[in-house]
Write a structure and sequence with these properties.
The radius of gyration is 21 Å and the shape is elongated. 39% of the residues lie in helices and 17% in strands. A 6-stranded parallel β-sheet has the order 1-12-2-3-4-5, covered by helices on one side. It has a 6-stranded parallel β-sheet with strand order 8-7-6-9-10-11, sandwiched between helices. It has 12 helices and 12 strands. The protein has 2 domains: 126 residues; 157 residues, 3-Layer(aba) Sandwich (Rossmann fold), CATH 3.40.50.2000.
């Protein structure tokens, strides 16, 4: 937003600050801020960015609060096109897709006879099905060189204990916990593939990061991944299907043609996740809401997290 010439105020909640426009992140969590801004400024633009939990959970399980936010919004932003189908029809015309960008990541040359790293990047919590890759790796042939490297914090101590127990029982699995972004990029720079085994996603930014690094993704077939990688992407497996993921891991290790096909498929999606495209999409969205004579002014926009 600052690159587009706007003044931006980022806040955890909204306390009546003067603003020309609000971008609220999360329809459910920011519902009170959305309500208060709309009441204070009924004619000013309000954008609500939808998360995976909005689209695939709260829209069904706390619908009054979530649908109120959708009603107040002038525009709704999602991370992939299939999210539109989860919205009530009366709100779909407000919906716009803006893909999250990721910076390019240099690939490290593969060292002969070195372990083949498979990346898992994400928090240990139920919706991520975070140990699916570790379970799949248990069934690989004895001579496989694959190891699963998992970066991401644990939602609860129970999940942390589960990851530690898996490491003790499974020599192919290593959990490093929450790590800085630089370490995530280094892992993607050397990984043979990324596994995203989630039960639900709004549109995982780690897919953008993997595509930027030209790293093949082995993903559970869910809307959040199909919406980013395309319906014909060859690296999907059914949600929770350990054996199917094992087969994909083995093919990624041993079948050069399959690995090349994955990389070509990833490369075809790369243009969706560039910073210039993301910035242009936000610029176009703001121009829909703000007359051109006003877009030249620098403006102050609270953004709700």
């Amino acid at each position: 937003m600052r690159e587009l010439g706007h003044r931006v105020h980022i806040a955890m909640d909204y306390r009546g600050e003067q603003a020309d426009l609000m971008i609220a992140l999360h329809a459910w969590r920011s519902a009170d801020a959305i309500r208060d801004f709309r009441r204070a400024y009924p004619q000013r633009p309000l954008i609500v960015a939808l998360t995976g939990t909005d689209i695939y959970h709260y829209i069904d399980h706390d619908s009054v609060r979530t649908l109120r936010s959708l009603a107040f919004a002038d525009r709704l932003v999602g991370l992939q096109e299939l999210a539109r189908q989860r919205l009530p029809k009366r709100y779909r015309s407000k919906f716009r897709v803006i893909h999250q960008s990721a910076p390019p990541i240099s690939r490290r040359a593969k060292t002969r006879n070195r372990a083949i790293d498979i990346a898992v990047i994400g928090q240990l919590r139920q919706v991520k099905d975070p140990l699916r890759a570790a379970k799949a790796a248990r069934h690989l042939p004895r001579d496989s060189r694959i190891r699963v490297i998992h970066l991401g914090g644990a939602e609860t101590q129970r999940w942390a204990n589960a990851a530690r127990a898996e490491m003790k029982a499974n020599p192919r699995y290593v959990w490093h916990g929450e790590r800085p972004g630089a370490e995530v990029r280094r892992l993607l720079g050397r990984a043979q593939a990324l596994v995203l085994s989630s039960q639900s996603e709004g549109g995982a930014n780690v897919i953008s990061e993997a595509v930027a690094a030209n790293v093949p993704v082995l993903a559970s077939r869910i809307d959040g991944s199909v919406g980013l990688l395309g319906s014909d992407y060859p690296g999907y497996f059914p949600v929770g299907d350990t054996k199917a993921l094992t087969r994909l891991l083995q093919r990624a290790e041993t079948d050069r043609d399959f690995l090349s096909a994955l990389r070509r498929a990833v490369a075809r999606r790369a243009h969706y996740f560039t910073r210039s495209r993301e910035r242009a999409a936000w610029k176009l969205l703001l121009e829909e809401l703000i007359p051109s004579s006003r877009t030249r002014r620098r403006r102050r926009m609270p953004r709700q997290w």
